[in-house]
Amino acid sequence: MGLINAGRASEVGPGEIKAFTVAGRELAVANVDGELYAFDNWCTHESCTFSDEGELEDGKLVCTCHFGEFDPATGEVLGGPPWEPLGVYELAVEGDDLLIDPRIDDAAAS
Amino acid sequence: MSTPAVVAIVGTSAAGVSAATTLRAEGYDGRVVLLGEEVVPPYDRPPLSKGYLAGTVAADDLNLRPEGFWTDRDIDLRLGSRVVALRPAEQSVALDDGSSVRADAVILTTGGRSRALRVPGAELDGVFGLRTRADSDALREWSADAEHAVVVGMGFIGAEVAATLRSRGLAVTIVEPLSTPLERVLGEQIGRVVGELHAEHGVEMIFGDGVVGFDGANGRVTEVATTSGRRLRADLVVVGVGMVPDTAVVTGTQVAVDNGILVDEYARTSVPNVYAAGDVANHAHPFYRRRLRTEHWTHAVDHGAVAARSVLGRGDPYSTIPWVWSDQYDLALQYAGMHTGWDRLAVRGDLTARDALAFYLRDGVPVAAVTLNRNREMRRAMAILRRGQAVDADLLADETIDLREFAT
Ligand SMILES: Cc1cc2nc3c(=O)[nH]c(=O)nc-3n(C[C@H](O)[C@H](O)[C@H](O)COP(=O)(O)OP(=O)(O)OC[C@H]3O[C@@H](n4cnc5c(N)ncnc54)[C@H](O)[C@@H]3O)c2cc1C
Ligand code: FES
């Protein structure tokens, strides 16, 4: 499928997490100090979404419902109740276009 | 200190699982034996009063780890194994089937049992405590044919069970000796907000009254009798009056016990090579300069990890701020810190709309915080608690000021 245009990169300011629907999938895009990352919007623990309940803290993605912690780049669980890694997606920015590949990026997952 | 060849962990719940996985994450390559008396694989307790009881969380989703996890990590998980004696001098633990397991170090994570009400009729069918998955299964099954539930005690578990049973269509009455819900933890003002939520959902709450007995017919509960003389119709009763730390395993040893197993800030008991963590441990807390016995999920996990690192000689003093979440209907509540009384509540947001962060202050120092549907603010609130310095309560209540300003 490859990279698809998902929206505008400038919609996600530093420290923010926003939801995007890409090819029918609900993904979240986070801006960590200017670097953008795409991952599933639903926490792998219970039913919280990162666009509503997520926070970025020292480069970590925190689900504030029960303090689940993930690496936004790899989806690896860093702490808290979740044990299942988060699906992460390849992302590129061209101009202000946010391009996301809606297939889970297994290469990035550790 | 030499690294032990075999570490035995007693208890297969949040703290025990965390201890076992931490040993492996730290590169420990000796034997890890994880012993638990329950026969089901390690599972999560918080959903037992919420989604699992409601029927929206499936049994598989309750598992603390996926199926192949234990063999992958070379963790010898032994279910249905109750440890009946600890023999530190012989470096072993004895199991209920008469066998024993070598243990150069032991981590006790035996948690607790739900406190029973010692009143006539407490043994009737239809009267439940709630601590284990088996309890939650039995309660859910019984609730399918029940109409009138009485919940005794309105702490976190009582309030959550009431919400879940109500959402399953039962009529619910709560009997609570204090004057507001969750009064001991949240205080009257916030407790009242929780009470209003339950009232909106049609839960009847009786405060300032206690239960003196249960009546039944054919061995099944039919009525609850209270101190003030009320008789409440009930075909289901849930007793949510707290838990008792399970210290049976150290009976007859030198391991010191006082409201749980006493440990220092490294999770060490009074006996060398014996550690304790989680709900069962009454731990020295450097930040509060007193002992605490915390009964929260995250504490159990963090404390289990501390015990594991101490076993390996890499312990750090455990000094985290207690934190707990509770979900009732559509309310996500979180509470952090510890207070022994406060003189001021600084509220950001709107309590009646259940959209707020409130700090409990004592002599100007924020000592605890609660969020109502504001999960995202809790971490920043906790940084303020950890700082432990007096702040201007009026400024703290001013939502136009970023919380981070108070944490530096
Ligand atoms: C219904 C319910 C809802 C909860 N909801 C929340 C919540 O929303 N948020 C939150 O933060 N916390 C919540 N908690 C609290 C949280 O679940 C506990 O803090 C946590 O489970 C403690 O973990 P633990 O490993 O210390 O002990 P436990 O979970 O009590 O586990 C101890 C284990 O040790 C076993 N054991 C005991 N003695 C022996 C022996 N001699 N030999 C072998 N095995 C033994 C027991 O069978 C048990 O499996 C809830 C608790 C309950 C019961
Ligand atoms: S839903 Fe994300 S940590 Fe629980």
Specify the CATH homologous superfamily of chain A: Rieske [2Fe-2S] iron-sulphur domain
Q: Quick one: CATH class of chain A?
A: Mainly Beta
Distance between the termini of chain B: 39 Å
Number of strands of chain A: 10
Domain module tally of chain A: 1
Low-confidence region ranges of chain A: none
Strand proportion of chain B, as a percent range, falls in: 25-35%
Low-pLDDT residue intervals, each spanning 5 or more residues of chain B: none
The protein's oligomeric status is: heterodimer
Structural class assignment of chain B? alpha/beta
| Helix count from the secondary structure assignment of chain B | 9
Q: Give the helix tally of chain A.
A: 1
Under the CATH scheme, which architecture of the largest domain in chain B would be assigned?
A: 3-Layer(bba) Sandwich
Cα separation of the termini of chain A: 22 Å
* β-strand amount of chain A: over 45%
- Mean pLDDT score of chain A, rounded? 93
Strand order of the largest sheet of chain A: 1-10-9-4-3-2
**What is the structural class of chain A?**
mainly beta
Average pLDDT taken over every residue of chain B: 97
Write the layout of secondary structure elements.
The complex is a heterodimer of chains A (110) and B (408).
Chain A: E1 4-8, E2 17-22, E3 25-32, E4 35-40, H1 50-53, E5 54-57, E6 60-63, E7 68-70, E8 77-79, E9 88-94, E10 97-104
Antiparallel strand pairs in A: 1-10, 2-3, 3-4, 4-9, 5-6, 6-7, 7-8, 9-10
Chain B: E1 6-10, H1 14-25, E2 31-35, H2 51-54, H3 69-72, E3 75-78, E4 83-87, E5 92-95, E6 100-102, E7 105-108, E8 112-114, E9 127-128, H4 133-143, E10 148-152, H5 156-167, E11 171-176, H6 183-200, E12 204-207, E13 211-217, E14 220-226, E15 231-233, E16 236-239, E17 243-245, E18 261-263, E19 274-276, E20 281-285, E21 290-292, H7 297-311, E22 323-328, E23 331-337, E24 344-350, E25 355-362, E26 365-372, H8 378-387, H9 393-396
Parallel strand pairs in B: 1-2, 1-7, 2-3, 7-19, 9-16, 10-11, 10-16, 11-12, 18-20
Antiparallel strand pairs in B: 4-5, 5-6, 8-17, 13-14, 14-15, 20-21, 22-23, 23-26, 24-25, 25-26
Helix pairs in contact in B: 1-7
Bound molecules: flavin-adenine dinucleotide and FE2/S2 (inorganic) cluster.
Residues 43, 45-46, 48, 63, 65-66, 68, 80-82 of chain A line the site of FE2/S2 (inorganic) cluster (FES).
